[in-house]
């Protein structure tokens, strides 16, 4: 089954404790992105990647890191989480030609 | 960077009526304009999209129109049904980069 998976689905952590949210796709897509969704603000792109070792900032990259060492994986790293990073996070992937994004199930992160 | 504005933020219609949601964008380099539907507690899913070289696209009850000169595009849903109730997002961008509108909550009253 073609899909995008994220782990964990739910995470409660404390300020300053490094965390990683994993994202994996099995569709051989070139493009992958991370978004955060906050009430009334829609989805805001954090980082995106157009292929292995190629990443670029989205609209709200501050406080986040990403890496793309393998085509199927695109982890999101919060080196020192803060309460304003409490949000719902979505990973998405798309193919180079089609652009249609397939979203993962989401990760709800709470930073206290 | 790109800026996408979406209106209205909420829309309520009677079942069977039409619904129209409008978006404007700022970056003339954007060439891909998708619309996503997000039901409560679920992930966004693409319902229709259009490229900059096309003015209109239709898929059954859903259509999208694009005016590149004015930098705006619209979603049209005809013969609305209660299951169309959801949050709808427009987006603008190109390869990889994507900026979303803030969403429209559509309620279809039976």
Structure description:
The complex is a heterodimer of chains A (112) and B (110). Chain A has 112 residues and is mainly β. Chain A has strands at 4-7, 10-13, 19-25, 31-37, 43-51, 54-57, 65-66, 76-78, 87-94, 102-103, 107-111. In chain A, the strands form two sheets. In chain A, strands 2, 4, 5, 6, 9, 10 and 11 form a seven-stranded mixed beta sheet that branches. Chain A starts with a strand and ends with a strand. Chain B has 110 residues and is mainly β. In chain B, 0% of the residues lie in helices and 57% in strands. Chain B is built from no helices and eleven strands. In chain B, the strands form two sheets. In chain B, strands 2, 4, 5, 9, 10 and 11 form a six-stranded mixed beta sheet that branches. Chain B has a five-stranded antiparallel beta sheet with strand order 1-3-8-7-6, with no helix packed on it. In chain B, a hairpin with a 6-residue loop joins strand 4 (32-38) and strand 5 (45-51). The model of chain B has no long low-confidence stretch (mean pLDDT 95). The interface between A and B is medium-sized, with 24 and 20 residues.
Q: Mean pLDDT of chain A, as a whole number? A: 95
Q: Tell me the distance between the termini of chain A.
A: 36 Å
Rg result of chain B: 13 Å
Q: Could you describe the largest sheet of chain B, including whether it forms a barrel?
A: 6 strands, mixed
Shape of chain B: globular
Shape of chain A: globular
Structure described in brief:
The complex is a heterodimer of chains A (112) and B (110). By secondary structure, chain A is mainly β. Chain A has strands at 4-7, 10-13, 19-25, 31-37, 43-51, 54-57, 65-66, 76-78, 87-94, 102-103, 107-111.
List keywords for this structure.
heterodimer, A: 112 residues, mainly beta, four-stranded antiparallel β-sheet, 49% strand, globular, B: 110 residues, six-stranded mixed β-sheet, five-stranded antiparallel β-sheet
